[in-house]
């Protein structure tokens, strides 16, 4: 809810905070500014909070020994792993698309001339990026036994993605495009080959992280 609200009223608030000796020239806000706030909030708050909340998803199980009881009672390890994965994916899916829907409703209310062009690809790309982080989180959580180590590894992975932006070849294939160029597509930039490449790499990484986590969980000693 704060995304369209801040986009709509921030220029007015700034104008009231300044005195007559200071002049600030601010363009009239548009629906693009509302979505810009949305993507910024998801990046800086939404994803961070979700990763913090679910970082102990396996460490608590290892600590309390609950996995031992489930396995000794005949529950397949793959079922346990997939149950955790479904929990992560469904939580991200529900919270993300609910937030996007609220943003869409309020954006159309405050900006009646807003367009839906580019909204689906912009929101969908960030959603896929979030799925990749959830898959990585679970995979690392299976291998490590501490929530801090899990968060540190996920953070290091994102840091490597930003570092890869320094190299044009890596940038063209980087999943980070799905999380950083959303507003460009909203503003009307044509979807090119680079976006398709990023989608493909991100999808492959999701499958890779899921596979790695499943293999390690099947072989890992959990006592």
From TrEMBL:
Organism, as annotated: Alkalibacterium gilvum
Descriptive protein name: ABC-2 type transport system permease protein
Keywords noted in UniProt: Membrane, Transmembrane, Transmembrane helix
Transcription keyword on record: no
Lineage of the species this protein comes from: Bacteria, Bacillati, Bacillota, Bacilli, Lactobacillales
Transmembrane segments: 35-54, 85-106, 126-144, 151-170, 195-217
Protein biosynthesis keyword on record: no
Taxonomic superkingdom: Bacteria
Coiled coil: none
């Amino acid at each position: 809810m704060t995304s369209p609200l801040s986009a709509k009223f921030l220029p007015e608030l700034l104008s009231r905070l300044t005195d007559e000796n200071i002049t600030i020239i601010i363009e009239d806000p548009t629906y693009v500014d509302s979505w810009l706030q949305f993507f910024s909030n998801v990046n800086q708050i939404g994803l961070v909070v979700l990763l913090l909340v679910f970082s102990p998803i396996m460490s608590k199980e290892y600590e309390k020994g609950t996995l031992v009881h489930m396995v000794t009672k005949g529950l397949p390890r793959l079922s346990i792993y997939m149950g955790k994965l479904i929990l992560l994916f469904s939580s991200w899916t529900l919270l993300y698309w609910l937030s996007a829907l609220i943003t869409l409703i309020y954006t159309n209310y405050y900006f009646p001339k807003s367009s839906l062009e580019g909204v689906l690809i912009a929101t969908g790309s960030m959603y896929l990026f979030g799925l990749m982080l959830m898959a990585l989180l679970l995979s690392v959580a299976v291998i490590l036994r501490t929530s801090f180590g899990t968060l540190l590894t996920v953070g290091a992975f994102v840091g490597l993605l930003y570092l890869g932006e320094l190299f044009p070849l890596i940038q063209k294939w980087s999943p980070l495009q799905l999380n950083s160029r959303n507003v460009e597509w909203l503003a009307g930039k044509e979807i090119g080959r680079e976006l398709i490449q990023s989608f493909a790499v991100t999808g492959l990484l999701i499958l890779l992280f899921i596979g790695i986590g499943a293999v390690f969980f099947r072989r890992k000693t959990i006592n």
